[in-house]
Amino acid sequence: MARILVKDDDLVVRLSWREKAAVHRGSVRVPLAAVRRVTVEPDWWRALRGVALHGVWIPGVLCVGIRGNPGGQDFVAVRPGSPVVCVELRPTAPFSFLAVSVRDDVEATAQRLRRLAPDIDASTPWRQPLPVAEETETSWKELAVKTLR
């Protein structure tokens, strides 16, 4: 299972060796200043949004990798049956959202991130909805092209 750590001024998602092998990448690092909101999602499947772009998606076993949606790209490392720490990020970050099932106490991890991030948006304890792109006659074709890249 993945771990969320704070090293210097970065939030680090350290993956297990199996997760690294599945997604073909090492740890994920984002600046702590890019953290906008931290929430806990009790249902693991609600943390997944968009379509799978790269990674391993075995429903009921493991979902790890990059997912695409109209708001950008998300990095997820979730396991069924465990709550998920959800981290919304500002546009300067490489991802727009991180969803991670952690080994440690989920609430304690979320509280620690809220305390250490310099500029948390505390206006609402819930995640914000994804932006919805305006639909046109060609929008579905454009989405399909983006997904296949």
UniProtKB/TrEMBL annotation:
This is Uncharacterized protein.
